[in-house]
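Session log. Operator J.P. requested a structure for one protein chain; no other inputs attached. Running the standard single-chain path with token output.
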Amino acid sequence: MPRALPYLLVVLLSLGACSSMKIDDFAETRPVFSPEVYFAGQSRAWGMFQDRFGNLKREFTVDLQGDWDGTTLTLTEDFDYSDGEKEQRIWRITKTGDGTYDGRADDVVGVAKGFARGNALNWSYDLMLKVGDSRIKVRFDDWMFLQPDGVLINKADVSKFGITIGTVTLFFKKDALPKESSLDRRKPAA
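Structure written below.
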């Protein structure tokens, strides 16, 4: 039995990383979420990262500017972390079919794939995540759900080698607060 324990742990961890949600389950839900429509113009998001044990590790806001040219959505994300760090990611998202999307960004490895049905979008990609002074390759499995009044809820499982290492939760709002009201929980200067 002791020799089987490591194999049992690998199987249990693998099962925990599997999602039973399927994008087609949301085909009849409303309001309909079209990323190219929702993200055109300005929006704002408030988010947090929790480790695999549920411990809050980081909070942030994101100011977004989207430009849709009929084929490609260029989405500029300006991150403002509660510890004072700032980061920018520029997505180039192409609509490839009815409810299908490809996305590229400088820190994304390969091509992100998105599938939208009803009020939901499933967005999956590998990202070179900055950790300290280095970068590690992690997998993001995002599920976005459009709610009434322009609120978008995003839950992303972050994994490495198929094992969930944390969760990112974001809430988006169209035409939200101006940039000056960014989350700022830094300690005041002494």
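Operator note: The first strand starts at residue 41 and ends at 51.
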